[in-house]
Amino acid sequence: MTTADGAALTVDARAKINLALHVTGRRGDGYHLLDTLVTFATFGDRLTFAEADADRFTLSGRFADAVPRGDEPDRGNLVLKARNLLREYAEAEGFSATPVHIHLEKQLPPASGIGGGSADAAATLRGLARLWRLPGEIPAPLALSLGADVPMCLAGKPLFARGIGDAITPAIGFPRLFLVLVNPLHQVATPEVFGALEHRDNSPILDGDMPQRAEDWLALIKSARNDLQFPASRIAPVIFAVTDALAATGAELVRMSGSGATCFGLYPDLASAEIAARNLAAAYPDWFVVATTTISSGDAA
Questions:
Q1: Number of domains composing the chain
Q2: Cα separation values, 272 from 44, 64, 78, 251, 285, Å
Q3: In what residue span(s) does the GHMP kinase C-terminal domain sit (predicted)?
Q4: 236 is in an annotated binding site
Q5: Does residue 171 sit in helix, strand or coil?
Q6: For residues 114 and 126, what is the distance between their CA atoms, to the nearest angstrom?
Q7: Are 72 and 213 found together in one domain?
Q8: Are residue 219 and residue 282 in the same domain, yes or no?
Q9: What is the pLDDT of residues 41-92, one digit of tens each?
Q10: Is 115 annotated as a binding residue?
Q11: Which residues does the annotation mark as catalytic?
């Protein structure tokens, strides 16, 4: 996208996929401790940044109408919150943070367990840091203040995230995957899902050395689980229908991502994923269905 305001800079906000998620404890302040294996799809939202005479925020895409337009604390959107926080940081450090036109192409469904808002916030931090020519890395506390998923989205590569999502370890040697994402366009409230958990002191995903081969990574994924899947499915039984529909396509593995309601199926290649996606979209035209690949650990963030 090129605007009349000047040259534009475009940043992808990739869907975050929780391939496995174990709840390992709970802090005294109520935050749950997690151990999650995360990768990122090539499909996602897209943000474009251009210098402007005054701040502007515009929207397009399938789910544009679901995005809040303001940056009020209780009902704002994370793109504008990220802009404001990074501007405050830049100006406090003595850098100029000029007005900017931000355009968000919203293709990820809201509140869907694949990090749409968090991915948008991370992409905003990356894009504006480049536009404003800020040196060094974005401070971790700034990213975390926008949400527990933002630091991992800012990292943007396959990783383990532990604690409340802020303790990140790269998943070295993680392979590219082929999958179908399905969401019945039913929003599930994350606090309600965590509140329905019966067990909060589960084992971590990995006990020992990190896998070295693609087949070992796949074996680890299959041996793990998502501790939020059953409580989310009890709250929103349509998730059972989604996982059943994915399983019927012959997926090698079917699981929910994050707190839902997006589920994914893994396939041996992109052609198989695309066939499954076409069949699912035809059978369930009201659902969000997309075939995609994920990045590997060697891809650029």
A1: 2
A2: 20, 30, 35, 9, 19
A3: 216-285
A4: no
A5: coil
A6: 19
A7: no
A8: yes
A9: 999 999 999 999 999 999 999 999 999 887 665 457 899 999 999 999 999 9
A10: yes
A11: 16, 149
